[in-house]
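Re: the multi-chain job from yesterday

Posting the exact lines I submitted so nobody has to dig through the queue logs.
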Amino acid sequence: MHRDATKLENHSIIEGDICIVGAGMAGIAMALDWINTPYKVILLEGGGFNVETRMQDLYQGKNTGQRYYPLQSLRLHYFGGTSGHWAGFCSPYDPIDFKKRDWIEHSGWPIQFNDLLPYYEQAREIVEIESSNFDFDYWKKKDPELESLPLDKKVLWNKMWQFSPPTRFGSRYKEEILKASNVHLYTYANVVNLETDDLVSNVKQVLIRNHAGKEHVVKAKCFIMACCAIQNARMLLASNQQAPNGLGNDHGLVGRFFMDHLEVMTSDLFMPFAKQIKLYYPWVYSETKVRAELALTDQKQSQLKILNGTASLMPKEIAANKSPNIDTFPEDAVATVEMWEEMNKLRGHENFGSPETYNCKEFELFTRMEQAPNPNSRIRLDSERDELGVLRANLDWRLTSIDKRSIRKLQEVIGEEVGRAEIGRIRLKEWLRDEENNSDWTSELGGGWHNMGTTRMADSPKKGVVDANCKVYGLSNLYMAGSSCFPTSGAANPTLTLLALTFKLSKHLKENVAKNFKSLQKAMA
Amino acid sequence: MKRRSFIVVSVFSLFGIGVFSFIRWIRNSGNVKELANPRFLSLLCDSSTIRTLGRAYLKLKPGENGDDILLNDLLTEKFHKKLLERTDMLAAESQIEERIKQDFDSNNIVIVQGWVLSVTEARQCAFFSILNS
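And the result, structure tokens for all chains:
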């Protein structure tokens, strides 16, 4: 069921068993998973059912570090969240992404790939992709035209991607949420403060506000923050009435380790003779079912002591017409949603993007590189407040030398391998050529719009904000959902993994927390 | 100098003079230009680019700046022998192709103006730039 918080009587008190803050991909996934349980679920969404400039303005913030996208259009503040301008890229993280790598400081998750594996299937289902199988051989059997480049498998492998339609969570799951008798969705319910008990040991209630000047309180036994990596950190930092440094921030880690993938054109690949590259052909919106990117094996990453990353092949004629994402991303979030809607209308039209032939011989390589976790890359609170009185976010995105060195090494490895296979030669872009210079970045560098890491998961409160079950250290009933929990960013887009992690959290709450709600309620009283 | 040492030194001196003369001879022959042609790379870029890459390589490796030095680097002992037996240049070219492949296999690569090249083909570019300077 749904209520518009602007229409509630002022100072209403809303009560439930669990309260999910944020109805984006993680929040909706969690809520769907609790339908038909004996628990009352409160789902709070700051925006409405459509993207609105006024709501996006609440996300407005400052970029004070490495050039980055405008914060007010980066994430979408309405029901369905950023799925509203999601491209639909899906691939799981690699096992190495979860491991402690001695050449990467702050690497290692307290959970491993196999712990998440069962939940990838649930994630697959909700984003509506065909299979949980991401092996090249599996897809090759389905489509014999998928020809792999003859490269050494001990060095480079084909990392497969599947593409969601893309599923717009707002429209796709709205009815299901609204019809669920135990899920209570409140729109225009912006959380502005989390209030704890005097000991700062559990969250008693959250305060919500909206532009209608209404203020309400939500009480629950358990709270899950699912607002995105920037807003999750911002909200913990801003909830500083009982804890001066913010909640969960006893060790000053909230907001630190902000990460995105480094996405940029990195080199040219020249082949003397055209090859059929359907397997690697650039993604065509709503048409491409699967494709591959060239990825470094664990062995090679370890040998070179570099980060995980992939490179995709972009035929020269396509690359020539492509401006860097960092230069073209709109400041107006409404425009980003409209742009995707326009694209959607073109589906099925002639010449929509499918090539007449997949034969190409000259490419630009587009790299997506993991960013090394860096405590100085962080979200802070700015001095300026938003319209609802919350201090705005200030993002200081910072990169380190291993980031650039890893990008360069990936190109070199690909260069060696295409040389070894006698199929071509690689030429690095000028900004990558100076081996001694690992600090200057090309102005074309952008992120993948993948915000991660600001409430990182760790096995100790000295190393992270949440534990292996995404519970905030020091608070008995506060959980974080989504990619803010990621200790490292991996090479793949985070969507599938953040959903898998959300389903893992959901199961944990059902099996280990919900059954104790009665005793928890007594303790809180 | 003892008689034995004198003989050893003389033999090596004569051998050195021989190799030097041989290189002078081959450098002046038309065929040598074939050795300075990085076959695979020339399918990808024009002679001006190859010359530029050659010059850039010599800046990276000034110790190799000399046609005699480069030729020596390019020719294997086996090839020296074959040339002395007056074998044609095709054998030499295919041996160089083989060395390029071996370079990539053993990571004997060099990055010249962003190009990831086998050291052998980079030397070919350098040799080409000298012959066409």
